[in-house]
Amino acid sequence: MRRCLACSTAFDGEDWSCPACGWTPDDSQGLPQFAPALAHEHEGYDPAGYATLAGLEADSFWFQARNRLIAWALRRYRPGAGRILEIGCGTGYVLQAIAAAAPGAETWGSEVHVAGLAFARQRAADRVRLAQFDARAIPFDAHFDAVGAFDVLEHIREDTQAMAEVHRTLRPGGVFLINVPQHMWLWSAADEQARHVRRYSRGELCGKLETAGFEIVRVTSFVALLLPAMLAVRALRRWRRDGDISGELTPPGPLNGALAAVLRLELLLIKAGLSLPAGGSLFVVARKPGT
């Protein structure tokens, strides 16, 4: 169901006009905008970064590996999902993978920044629906079978509010797929450049999800086998006072291929049921109780 952000009325239909109070979102740019005051904000993320991301994601071992993990988890933990939402879809790179993994689903992508949605529209708009809104105020009620937030929650100060909104937005039995940067002891200038608020511990993220009403289904570290190399690179960047991580994400061709192979092995371990204890990222599957 859709939800009016002005009066909280839940209603069915394709029209965003609230039947109770008549409120409608701004659609001046060809898509519904529920938080237009934040559409060009720079606090949580610099919109200029979307152009950089759009240019490197498809060739980056890290983005490729994360997409494989997300697609596998969606098929494994919510097969046959009829409605899927990605919060903070950025340039639409993950949306493409979700649409391919669940071709029959009604798939939505949201982003608070319209700059990101411009890229997502070019990449995936023929297969998904797009909307601009704040993850702390989602305009749906019990609508989705699966919601994803991939490297998004670390940008939101009120992350527990966003988790509660996702819980309300999911149908009973729906799953929340999350990827976040892990370990505050990995904090570096790269996190500051990316405007992260935090890096998570396993206990912190799972505790917040449980407080929001979720059951934890699966939790594992990601980029675990590459953690020693990541530590070495971060130490070198601290010494050089270099916060630019683009080189980490797109190393030279042969190295990029080798790192991709390592993460393919890591995904096989995760698929086999291993919960990796430490890594650059943390991946969690949480479930809203009910059927």
Explain this structure.
The protein starts with a strand and ends with a strand. Helix content is 37%, strand content 18%. The longest helix is centred in the C-terminal third of the chain and has 19 residues, at 253-271. It has one domain: Vaccinia Virus protein VP39 (Rossmann fold). Helix 2 (61-77) runs parallel beside helix 3 (93-101) and helix 2 (61-77) runs parallel beside helix 10. The chain has 291 residues and is of the alpha/beta class. The chain has a seven-stranded mixed beta sheet, with helices on both faces.
Overall pLDDT, averaged? 92
The name of the CATH topology is: Rossmann fold
Number of helices: 10
Q: What share of the residues lie within helices?
A: 25-40%
Largest sheet descriptor: 7 strands, mixed
Strand order of the largest sheet: 5-4-3-6-7-9-8
Query: How many strands appear in the DSSP assignment?
Result: 9
CATH superfamily, please? Vaccinia Virus protein VP39
Shape: globular
Under CATH at level 1, the class stands as Alpha Beta
Distance between the termini: 17 Å
Number of domains: 1
Contiguous runs where pLDDT drops below 50 for at least 5 residues? none
Q: What is the architecture at the second tier of CATH?
A: 3-Layer(aba) Sandwich
Written as H for each helix and E for each strand, in order along the chain, the element string is: EEHHEHEHEEHEHHEHHHE
Percent strand: 15-25%
Structural class, please?
alpha/beta
State Rg: 19 Å
